[in-house]
Design goal:
The chain is mainly β. The protein is built from 1 helix and 10 strands; from the N terminus they run H-E-E-E-E-E-E-E-E-E-E. Strand 5 and strand 6 form a beta hairpin.
């Protein structure tokens, strides 16, 4: 009985492991009760194959307390030589009917958002990605200080080519 349960657990692990072959890096940072405007989330990337190409994603987990249908982010990638590339990004978080986009069974939804595709990491050293929110209310100049409803911010790297290529 114990051997069969162990075998089932091992098979389940292998099935789930093989479903995500393209994943190279996947990390999350949890924010406190609200994501503060001054809170910059940082990811230090692992050493990557300089001859391979990768697709990069920002992952966002939100719950029903999130009050907007979109999300503005400022992301920056710092290269080992000190060069920094900054992007202002906008993502849709809800459909026009108000239904949350993303995956999840409860009120917590996870969104896998495109950041960059077919990227090569040719410089030796540590790459760093930072993400902060840039939300503001319509008609207001100052940004939202405390963004409710975002629970986790993640960064994911996947192989851009198929595993057999």
């Amino acid at each position: 009985m114990i051997k069969s349960k162990l075998g089932i657990a091992l098979c389940t692990f292998l099935v789930f492991q093989s479903c995500d072959r393209n994943s190279v890096y996947d990390s999350y940072k949890t924010v406190s009760q609200s994501w503060e405007k001054s809170e910059v989330v940082e990811f230090k990337l692992p050493q990557l194959d300089s001859t391979a190409t990768y697709n990069l994603f920002i992952n966002i987990r939100n719950n029903n307390n999130y009050p907007y249908s979109n999300l503005f982010l400022i992301s920056a990638m710092e290269f080992p030589n000190g060069k920094i590339v900054t992007d202002t990004l906008e993502y849709e978080m809800a459909a026009p009917n108000g239904e949350w986009l993303g995956t999840g069974f409860s009120d917590l939804k996870e969104n896998k958002l495109w950041y960059k595709e077919k990227v090569r990491f040719v410089e030796q050293g540590t790459y760093k990605v930072t993400i902060q929110h840039a939300m503001r209310n319509n008609g207001e100049v100052l940004g939202v200080n405390s963004l409710e409803g975002i629970t986790d911010i993640g960064f994911r790297i996947e192989n851009a080519s198929k595993p057999n290529e």
